[in-house]
């Protein structure tokens, strides 16, 4: 009965607020207390009982009352942070105020005139009688008071952390409390694991939800090329003003990385017991990725020690980024990597009993966190690549890429997965690690094969390119760049993977595909470069690939003799009109898919998705480095690089707008997905503006790197044909045996230097990450739906 009375009283208070035309004074506590005192309402109740229309009505018609409500709610949080909420009633007041502010803040942010409200000092704030709201320097802005109060409350004994009180009469002073002793979970920089308390987890999750809502002002600003515009909420919270920055960062990271959704592995335990930790872990990882996003993308040098004391003395602007970049102990890296790998692998786990283990849903946030760790902490990146542990991250990423390839609502997941692999592929060790045999039985909708992790990567990439949806075309460059980067280190490709690579070359080198857009020939250059790397540097173990090249030798001869006369061009363009499909899917020999796998399916009708800005072209995403004889990498200046001539010429030939923004200065313009689709359709209809010419074809045809492969064919084809005739061979295993023991030493051209295209951050990718990350946060917070139906401007919410 009490609960329904609470809801009724709360609803009456809301109606009073919306119908009052006169301002209600801040001193009228009897009126304001109706919202938080003596009521027990859940956050779902608050969202149901405070409709959006009424918040907007108060904002427009009684602005002073909305301002006072916000101010009074913050005041209650500040008072609770000072007193430590010793009574249950005070704890309930804090939770009620937290829920009300979570409900109201998005409507403050969506109105440009209100955005500065929390950053102004409130007239009459001195009446609060508290130090926080009435500083020595005059009143603090309301936003600062709110953020500091949340930080204090996240380390409030018996509310959000386990109390260290020695006896029943001793009281812990909130002002002198050392929050480094109250870190929520053992892990980085903290050895003790406090006892689990689900009430504390629930309270932490409520406060973190409010904190995330504070940070979400970024959603209400349109995409901007100016990456120096920082979110004031994040900037203040992650500054030295927040005395809890270090223990909170450590708590969030440790809670995420220590979480084990399976527990002791008892089947169906997640259906029998509520897991309050999962909700906290989701909120924690979202807070981490949002706070780590604001640093202008500049990695910090790692410090020589990551003890708590030395981390305390760190200085730069964003302390969360600073602390992350300074972690360096091997045991800390091991804890973080194993924790993330365990969580990323969780949805792949197979059991004999259907639905018997818990499957987490926050893998996209985990991938962004892994990206941040690798980007800001190069020592972590090298640790990841030091052993085959990197494969524990690679396999789930390939699983997600393969699973999402047909679903347009998950195009952002496809991008983040590919970006991570592009980043890893810039390091030699990644290519070396891929040679480990693949023995896991993760059910994927791909052909069965026996081979290495490199084979798995190639087979999945082939599946994405040949059976993914149209919007994945901008990623083809990235996928092939990853293959090129790892190719010099691949010791032995399986026959399945070799055939997949040859099928891609066959599909990309058809005249209709090469002549249909100005940059399609780049894909052929990438594949030829990968073949050359393997032939020159890993010939001995790659008889399968050499055999596949010999079998498909006509593809290379056709490329060498590519016609460039106007009649052929016209014929190819006519063929394109008849067959708009990206590439031929029939000539690839599809075999049986893995047991237990499900085919990739499109999004369910009605699925919501957030739009994304376009990604920069591969020339903007990467910078070229040459591997010298001692194994070190030397960066190649872009202007002098002869290898980029063909891409530069293609730009000069008239390409200013591909969907991936290749060949235009994308620091200046950002497109939403809807705009990109319109541009794609308009560019499709205006292909008459750009037509391939014989001169354009000759400009890049003469640069096709075919010499090594032609020499290989020149030497080996006659030998293979002679063996087949002499011995009457029809069995390919005998031919493979011959190729295995063959050699081309001294017969091939001088090996070319290895070129690696390393990922490089820029304004375009920074903006992409911001829109993707906030889109994920928006769509994942549905209970309660914090931002639903508010006027977000960073992206568009679209229904599939």
UniProtKB/TrEMBL annotation:
Transmembrane intervals = none
Q: Which GO terms describe its cellular component?
A: Golgi medial cisterna; Golgi trans cisterna; membrane
The cross-references to InterPro entries, in alphabetical order and at most eight, read: Hid-1/Ecm30 (IPR026705)
Q: Which top-level group of life is the source organism from?
A: Eukaryota
Disordered, as annotated region: 577-603, 626-665
Provide ranges: composition bias, Polar residues.
584-594, 641-661
PANTHER family cross-referenced by the UniProt entry: PROTEIN HID1 (PTHR21575)
The protein here is known as HID1 domain containing
